[in-house]
Amino acid sequence: MLRFVLVFSLLFTLCLSSSAQTCSKFTSFSNNLAYSSCKDLPYLNSFIYWNYKSSSGSLQIAYRHARITASNWLAWAINPVGLQSAMIGAQSLVAFQLSNGSMRVYTSQITSYTTTMPEDKLKYDVSELKATYANAEIIIYATLTLPSNTTTINQVWQDGPVSNDNPEAHSLATANTNSKGTLDLTSSPDPSRQPGTNSVTPNVSASRSSGRMLTWVLLRFWLTMLCGWKLIHVMLF
Ligand SMILES: *[C@@H]1O[C@H](CO)[C@@H](O)[C@H](O)[C@H]1NC(C)=O
Ligand SMILES: *[C@@H]1O[C@H](CO)[C@@H](O)[C@H](O)[C@H]1NC(C)=O
Ligand SMILES: *[C@@H]1O[C@H](CO)[C@@H](O)[C@H](O)[C@H]1NC(C)=O
């Protein structure tokens, strides 16, 4: 049993260090909200967090872009038109740091490929719009009101350079042109994630009790399976 625990502890530690950034480990939101769902986006070091009530269409989001400099803008958008022309029709939240240090955050509907992303209203009501820049990460917070009973959205996210306090055209690298996809807002929350707490931190005194110890071992096992099964394969076979 002890050996079993040690092997999985080791695998779990390796697993943590091999995937340093996953959405559910981050809980330090400056608006002190806890998000019940999150997803690691496949491009541009990005993560989306949300709470959603489909009956009212109320969608609270935090879009987080890690490893970004103060001379970059970023945007997160819903495109109700579709993902074919992901950019045209994007109902965007845009943020970047101004040269005086303040964050600028606003909404913009993208209507052309040569847009300068001027500020305008979206098709959706947007409130509690806010952005922060810290630790080389920008986070945009907003609450959007979608048509009620919406379940899936087309999301688009992007980053690009800022010059003289104005956003400039983004790169056409693969990561920038593939940064789009559908998001099922009703997908069940990550079970390893408890709102407001960092659930991967063990409670040392609790884990002394054997029942909880077993739960902890199982949790490690599933986390390992989720993010490190390839690693297990390498180590055991
Ligand atoms: C920075 O500039 C913006 C726009 O000109 C202004 O709204 C904001 O208050 C300024 N911030 C500081 C800290 O001066
Ligand atoms: C949303 O779904 C509920 C439950 O199925 C239904 O009662 C309501 O009429 C729907 N609202 C709209 C706007 O379709
Ligand atoms: C750890 O577990 C013990 C026993 O169940 C409990 O009294 C204590 O409050 C817990 N500590 C934390 C930080 O959750």
3D structure, described in words:
- The chain contains three helices and eleven strands; from the N terminus they run H-E-E-E-E-E-E-E-E-E-E-H-E-H.
- It has helices spanning 2-18, 174-177, 210-236; strands at residues 37-40, 46-53, 58-65, 72-78, 91-97, 103-109, 125-134, 137-145, 152-163, 166-167, 180-184.
- Strands 4, 5, 6, 9, 10 and 11 form a six-stranded antiparallel sheet that branches.
- With 237 residues, it is α+β, with helices and mostly antiparallel strands.
- 20% of the residues lie in helices and 33% in strands.
- Strand 1 (37-40) and strand 2 form a beta hairpin.
- Helix 1 packs across helix 3 (210-236).
- It folds into two domains: 2-20 and 202-236; 31-184, Immunoglobulin-like, CATH 2.60.40.
- Bound molecules: 2-acetamido-2-deoxy-beta-D-glucopyranose (3 copies).
- One 2-acetamido-2-deoxy-beta-D-glucopyranose (NAG) is lined by residues 98, 100-102.
- One 2-acetamido-2-deoxy-beta-D-glucopyranose is lined by residues 98, 100-102.
- Residues 44-160 form the DOMON domain.
- It is found in: Membrane.
- Residues 178-206 are annotated as: Disordered.
